[in-house]
Specification:
Oligomer: single chain
Order of helices and strands: EHEEEHEHEHEEHEEHEHEEEEEEH
Distance between the termini: 65 Å
Helix content: 25-40%
CATH superfamily of the largest domain: Formyl transferase, N-terminal domain
Number of helices: 8
Enzyme class: transferase
Radius of gyration: 23 Å
Structural class: alpha/beta
Protein name: Methionyl-tRNA formyltransferase
Number of domains: 2
Family: Belongs to the Fmt family.
EC number: 2.1.2.9
Shape: elongated
InterPro entries: Fmt, Formyl_trans_C, Formyl_trans_C_sf, Formyl_transf_N, Formyl_transf_N_sf, Formyl_transferase-like_C_sf, GART_AS, Met-tRNA-FMT_C
Strand order of the largest sheet: 5-2-1-6-7-9-10
CATH topology of the largest domain: Rossmann fold
CATH architecture of the largest domain: 3-Layer(aba) Sandwich
Strand content: 25-35%
Number of strands: 17
Length: about 325
């Protein structure tokens, strides 16, 4: 009986944990899991293990959490120890999914059959840190998963295979993330099965045409600019759910807006002005059209449907959100 393919896995969040779980369930050997160091999280800011670490510990897999893999970085000793551990761990291939650390060429050269990245976009569109958010924000009709042979560039490696999914009108980053995580898990298992059988995976160089970069989401992007068209603001709200949460400022309070629909309205009101208030929705004038807000959250409160929100925070026609 041939030995199962040995996979070193590197990843951190839920997206990566789904792939690791699928790889483990498919019977591949996972001699080492790399994930980011525990981070403070929650109200108490207690040190919290990543989803990938939690799964690995539950299954008894060996875990390493170096702060860096770059000898020339801030943590040269940790990097050197992690690289030594990688070299000492017999394996065939490395799989990387949303790991969050830069892998220098020295690391990519260690796995005999290379390193495969699970990337949540249809490359070369949306290379970089936040491909799911940016695809929704930009109004893309579809997105997907690309398996890519890693090189030292930022998501520039040759493409192995892809899977596609439409972006639905009500998709948020949360719903699309979960769908893509499952697709990525299925795609990597299929790819590893082919690699185990054939010894290699054909790949195609990425075209340079159509390259875009998905910059990391910054908290200051969450403020809604009511001078923009309503259709763009609706996409921003869906793209920023669950993080960082889009908001408008009303009477010096940051009101998070979790769900909204663009509507045709020509009230002539200044952008940011509330033109209608009902249990069905709060209509706010925008630079083009209007936005019907249907799920909101006041500071220190919970996400609420508009009817419940208004019961605890009455709003009136004519009130105006601040222009950012």
């Amino acid at each position: 009986m041939t030995q199962p393919l040995r996979v070193v896995f590197a990843g951190t969040p839920e997206f990566a944990a789904a792939a690791l779980a699928a790889i483990h369930a498919a019977g591949f050997s996972v001699p080492l899991v790399l994930t980011q160091p525990d981070r403070p999280a929650g109200r108490g800011m207690k040190l919290t293990a990543s989803p990938v670490k939690r799964f690995a510990v539950e299954k008894g897999l060996k875990v390493a959490q170096p702060a860096s893999l770059r000898r020339a970085g801030k943590y040269p000793q940790e990097a050197a120890e992690a690289i030594d551990l990688l070299r000492a761990t017999p394996h065939d291939v490395m799989v990387v999914a949303a790991y969050g650390l830069i892998l220098p060429q020295e690391v990519l050269d260690i796995p005999p059959r290379g390193a495969i990245n699970i990337h949540a976009s249809l490359l070369p569109r949306w290379r970089g840190a936040a491909p799911i958010h940016r695809a929704i924000e930009a109004g893309d009709a579809e997105t997907g998963i690309t398996l890519m042979q890693m090189d030292a560039g930022l998501d520039t490696g040759a493409m192995i295979r892809e899977a596609r999914t439409p972006i639905l009108p009500d998709d948020t980053t949360a719903t699309l993330h979960d769908r893509l995580a499952q697709m990525g898990a299925e795609l990597i298992v299929a790819g590893l099965s082919d690699l185990e059988r054939d010894g290699a995976l054909p790949s195609t160089p990425q075209p340079e045409d159509g390259t875009t970069y998905a910059e990391k989401i910054a908290k200051n992007e969450a403020a809604l600019d009511w001078r923009r068209p309503a259709v763009e603001l609706a996409r921003q709200i869906r793209a920023f759910d669950p993080f960082p949460g889009a908001f408008g400022t009303l009477d010096n309070a940051a009101i998070k807006i979790w769900s909204a629909l663009p509507v045709d309205a020509s009230s002539g009101a200044e952008p940011g002005t509330i033109t209608e208030v009902s249990s069905d929705g709060i209509i706010v004038a925008c630079g083009g059209g209007a936005l019907k807000l249907t799920q909101l959250q006041k500071p220190g409160g919970k996400r609420l449907p508009v009817r419940e929100f208004l019961a605890g925070a009455p709003l009136a026609k004519g009130q105006r959100f601040a222009l950012q």
